[in-house]
């Protein structure tokens, strides 16, 4: 983390402690020592996420909550009570989800810019998409250079259903995108702390404007109104893109010539060598790479009974879609083809897979690798980078279990 | 309701009041008068369903809770907090879901009958299916002869994901179904009240044995362990069949020569003319018929603003799969083709549909009708029958709204 990032982080934390959400969550008294006294090793669930199933989650911080590897289930869809949570700033006041249809968004960079309410959007079109939501730093906990940020293992990802209006329907109703625009830039509605340059902390992200073809402005998650914690009343959903691009409480969607100058875009979420600072010449965390991981067995060192076993997991990609998955029980020496289970919910959803194995007593290193339609294969090794982004190496994701 | 049925109902209610579940739910003090004092028109959520979203539900009784028509959303999957609930007997003690893998089921009518735990089943195979769960009496509230039972309108139905082991995998591991068996008979694990002939009240259902091809023994619902209210630790899931056949807390699955002699099979859930008693010669509530209904707009008498409107709903069938849906805003005089929205989750799931209409001020009667792959069409009228089963007539499901 750069010195600048650190300062912002300190400001942010102070702000959170003073904000309503922070106070409600008891964050003002939240320090490592008080936690240790309360419950060794476990942090309290923040108020904004009080509806989460605590037994299924790992709380890294008030803004970073991970799904336990043994809590993904086999249904293909991640229950919202078990979906990871990552916020770059504290959530706005909960009052904004009391009358969600009244939330306003500015649409700009189109022929006829407009201010629309969610109520207006609901009359303009409808689509539903099953999509993997994954934090850029998912897998950061496997890096060895202590990359700063939440030490996610596999659980900063989930597959969920979003409903809303296609961005292309809104754009069409407003006369189309203006000539020369190259980016779609979304601005979050978080309340910014006073006395800080907005560009340093505002959640504003730009993606190539063509992403609008599949993007939706969503007000619903898994069949229920989008909760505040996950960006309600309105969130921009960009299928195939890392979580940070799916801006919450979206208050402005603009087609722009340039990327936003906000730090979260300019220097944040950039892939660079270890020790380097972030800058706009480096790749931005946009499309997700090809990835899979085993969810059952679910823990290193697990002890299992000999015999038949259903090795399960999930596979997904933001680019060329997943065509197949292979499973290994010997640390990658040999592989067997896994079978997909359950409905295929579209190319942006993850596929649930299972491989039946028959294990005599012994020690096994169990892992999976995904194969994409274009023939590319999930790599063995992670790509080292400063912030521990985009980890899809199958070796670090392996589990070693004992069968007796 | 026959006199026999009524007696059983009285016994059942007394038993529920005395049982742990009943006491925990405060059912012993639950009478129309006390309810009226507490909250006019609203009944309390029973303890077993305390996790339900009260704002999304209509509580008919402690064993009958309906999803509000405006609470289905557009995501295709019904959130478990919004899924209807119907129990024929009170749920067993909640202790049975504390260690779900220990639950035992007897498998009989196979070459090698066996007693298996859920832990054993989890090692034997895996499948996930998206399936409409619908009460036989869904739509009963539209009948005019006051059919006995919960007065469901549209909300005793939901589309959810079930994970478990395919019954055919279990059967194959036990040497196959014995010669001459014609039914698959499932027995529920409810605790029966003392002093009553078990056959009168036990939840035991038989379906044609070929239904085993798609059936699963499920321990997971929408990505989380199956809750007690919905049949956890283990429920038999028979895709395409009405809810009652999907026996909860299943403790025995047997292939049998004859249908069970339990009342719930012999005389209950039989379609017969008004005034007739149930008997085994009448059709049993097995495969669901072709059905659709509008979910948005969502109320009779709703007032809407003139202009564009997205008419939404769901369509499903237990037989020939849904091929298309048509929407009418003039009470069936003219129809327009609706569009499917979101992922297609398989033939047993429902399809979310939407039709964009542009309505000038006036009064509209909005409804939908589904068309199946075999060319059959959802009928206009209900089929009158004593218990108000299987209502799929599109006229009763229509909503009259005012646009200004």
UniProtKB/TrEMBL annotation, chains A, B:
Keywords: Metal-binding, Molybdenum, Oxidoreductase
Top-rank taxon: Bacteria
GO biological process: one example: sulfur compound metabolic process
GO molecular function (one): molybdenum ion binding
Cofactor(s) needed: Mo-molybdopterin
Domain called Moybdenum cofactor oxidoreductase dimerisation: residue spans: 284-395
UniProt cross-references to CDD domains, sorted A to Z: SO_family_Moco_dimer (cd02110)
Domain Oxidoreductase molybdopterin-binding: 98-261
PANTHER family: SULFITE OXIDASE, MITOCHONDRIAL, SULFITE REDUCTASE
The protein's name in its UniProt record: Sulfite oxidase
Organism: Zeimonas arvi
